[in-house]
Write a structure and sequence with these properties.
This protein is of the alpha+beta class and 229 residues long. It is 41% helix and 21% strand. The strands form three sheets. Strands 1-8-3-6 form a four-stranded antiparallel sheet. Strands 2-7-4-5 form a four-stranded antiparallel sheet. The relative contact order is 0.13.
């Protein structure tokens, strides 16, 4: 893979599209491009980190554990999104683990350079605000669905997974191949319940699967359950 990322490539990422070439060059000082396989931990909760990461391609989950050791997926992070921005902004430790769900290509940027550019660039500050607002909105919506029946919870998880796997935020996009266990955790269901519910959705033609990758076949089930407008 290429070892350098150009100013033009950085500006092509929507989050950085409004910055000028000079600011882009500052951000790219001592940057690194890395490729990570599925199942690898990118960030560990309570660790200290000074780098900001940009997902160039692939999908990762932000997770935490409760007092009983049960895993909870706080959010999914796809192409064009940031990782580690909170620690760069407030200087505190990482607030959650981040684990890859598919092959991920990452751009690592120096946090100090990002802070300098952020202080002089209102568009980046607004971008950070929109990013955090979007993640909070997704988290609130997903927690709200946790009181629903298993089918609704699984459909919501699949639509969320598809959206985060798509540059167009498309709930009908092809999803990366994930284990039943990963999908169950994302939906907040027991693995056996998720497996039975998935079988029902397949038999009804709601979910199509090819070469291990799943895809919702219609928006109608999501609309009927109030998961999308």
């Amino acid at each position: 893979m290429p070892t350098a990322f150009s100013v033009q490539e950085l500006q092509a990422i929507p989050f950085f599209s409004a910055i000028n070439e000079q600011d882009a060059a500052v951000l790219l000082v001592r940057h690194r491009l890395v490729e990570v396989m599925p199942g690898q931990t990118l960030v560990m909760e309570a660790d200290w980190g000074e780098n900001l990461m940009v997902v160039i391609s692939g999908l990762a989950k932000v997770r935490s554990y409760n007092a009983d050791g049960e895993e909870s997926v706080l959010s999914l992070v796809g192409a064009g999104e940031l990782l580690g921005e909170l620690s760069v902004l407030d200087g505190d430790a990482r607030s959650a683990d981040v684990v890859t769900l598919s092959p991920v290509k990452l751009l690592k940027l120096q946090g100090s350079g990002f802070q300098r550019v952020l202080q002089a660039n209102m568009s980046l500050a607004l971008g950070i605000a929109r990013l955090e607002a979007s993640r909070l909105r997704d988290l609130n919506r997903r927690f709200g669905v946790q009181k629903s029946d298993a089918t609704t919870r699984l459909l919501d998880a699949l639509a969320y997974l598809a959206r985060k796997s798509s540059a167009e935020d498309n709930p009908l996009a092809l999803m990366p191949p994930l284990s039943q266990g990963e999908i169950a955790i994302l939906a907040g269901l027991a693995r056996e319940t998720a497996s039975r519910t998935m079988s029902k959705l397949r038999s009804r033609g709601v979910v199509n699967e090819e070469n291990g990758c799943m895809q919702l076949t219609s928006l109608e089930p999501l609309q009927k359950r109030g998961l999308i407008a």
